[in-house]
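Please check these two lines:
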Amino acid sequence: VFTFPDYSDDELLTILQDLVASRKPRFSVADPKILRIAARRLGMQRGMTGFGNARAVRNLYEQARARQASRVQALNEAGELPENGEERRAAMLRFEREDFLG
C-alpha cells in the first residue's frame, strides 16, 4: 500500500489549469476565478475515502467537459450560438461557471 500526501488547493489548481491548457481542442475559461473556486471545492474532499489528488482533478475536468458539451448543444439547438465563425468557435470552446461549478 502506497500512501501519498494530499495536494494543496494551489497544487490542485495548477493541475487543473494545466489540464485545461494542454487538451485539444484548446478551451478558454470565461473567468479564471472559476478554476480557483473549483480547486478549492475539490480540496474540501481531502481526507475522504477515495480522494485521489490528480485523479480527482481529472474527473472534475471530464465532468466539466461533459457539462460544457451539453450546454453548447442546447445553445446550438436553441439557435443561441453566435453566427459569426470566430465568435461561434470561441463560444463553443469556452468553459463557463456552470461547467465547473454545477
Notes: The radius of gyration is 15 Å. The longest helix spans residues 54-77.
